[in-house]
């Protein structure tokens, strides 16, 4: 790998990482305590009310933690924050919820959490498609650190010409983008994911989507099992402490909140796969000439009009086939 990638890796392994993990641990504890107060202070309110209020409290807690960290000029580790919540959910399940879960479901759910944890740790160190600085394909059409093209091309008006094999190779090389956080070029760069502490690119995009699905499935399963425990607690009036009830209720709502945005996020990435477009390309398409179609100005216009077109889109069927078989 290039020197910049090695520097990034060594920086992640520096002693500063321990401090960041401790800050994330404190932030995670504050977040869970904030959510724990909702069922404690409003036990008679409906689940919908607690869900909405928990969403607001969660947003306030995260914003407050961010403000305090900026005020103190300290940094946290987003992957450590995610890791803490996975372990916290697992501990609550093992200590409270599994008592009302059948043996088969217990085995399945613990296996889900184990696979989720392994996948999470794997993506932290996965190669998204880092490009060496001496790569011959790096120059053409890539984006430099200052955000400008190293070589500019333009699309002309009057329609889209057919591409030969050399042009398709050129288009492929253009999908190398620069990540300012990793300080490296990434093939098929989609975005830098703070939660996973890594870029999402061509080589780990499938792992990213699989992990996202696993998060949704696991959190949904946890919510269902939690609801089962709550029903049993309320109907059978079983002997369980107030803190247990509050823990199960708050973590169930937390999981549902996660599922809500993750489903939307996953739907977006399914859209990206179907149309062979990256998130970064969709947001910043005006930076990349291959996405431009220049329309000549009409008599009542003084300047030409730039429209969007996706040169990588080969149709939904071909896009899905290429994604699954690559």
Report Rg.
24 Å
- The pLDDT mean sits at 83
Major sheet: size, sense and barrel closure? 3 strands, antiparallel
Helix content: 55-70%
Strand content: 5-15%
What global shape is seen? elongated
Structural class: mainly alpha
How would you spell out the order of helices and strands? HHHHHEHEEEEHHHEEH
Low-confidence stretches: 1-11, 144-166
Biased composition (Polar residues): 153-168
GO biological process, one term: protein targeting to membrane
Main location: membrane
Membrane topology: Multi-pass membrane protein
Short description:
This protein is mainly alpha-helical and 326 residues long.
Provide a descriptive summary of the structure in words.
- The protein has a three-stranded antiparallel β-sheet with strand order 1-3-2, with no helix packed on it. The protein has a two-stranded antiparallel ribbon with strand order 4-5.
- The longest helix has 34 residues, at 242-275.
- 59% of the residues lie in helices and 7% in strands.
- It is mostly helical and 326 residues long.
- It contains ten helices and seven strands.
- The protein is elongated and about 75 Å long.
- Mean pLDDT is 83; it is low at 1-11 and 144-166.
Which terms would index this structure?
single chain, 326 residues, mainly alpha, 3-stranded antiparallel beta sheet, 10 helices, disordered N terminus
